[in-house]
Design a protein that fits this description.
82 residues, two-stranded antiparallel ribbon, 4 strands
Length: 82
């Protein structure tokens, strides 16, 4: 691509090469088989109350398995109780 630019009152004709970049795409490639395609999503969750945690059994938190802000899946373990 040819451009004409002026710098400090002096005109220059320049050639510019524009690199083609592949546009990012989202999707899935499925070869054979059947079944549902899962696309990860994010969502916000509102707490029922500020500090209430109700458990069917008493226990002490022995280990926290995820860090704050880490995405989790339904059914994934979050803490380990003793």
């Amino acid at each position: 691509m040819k451009l004409k630019v002026t710098v400090n009152g002096i005109a220059y004709d320049i050639d510019v090469e524009v690199e083609e970049q592949e546009a990012p795409s989202l999707g899935a490639i499925v070869i054979g088989g059947s079944g549902a395609i899962h696309t990860p999503t994010t969502a916000s969750v509102q707490a029922a109350s500020a500090n209430a945690v109700v458990a069917p059994l008493a226990g002490t938190v022995a280990r926290i398995l995820v860090e704050k802000g880490t995405p989790v899946q339904a059914g994934e373990g979050l803490i380990e109780l003793d």
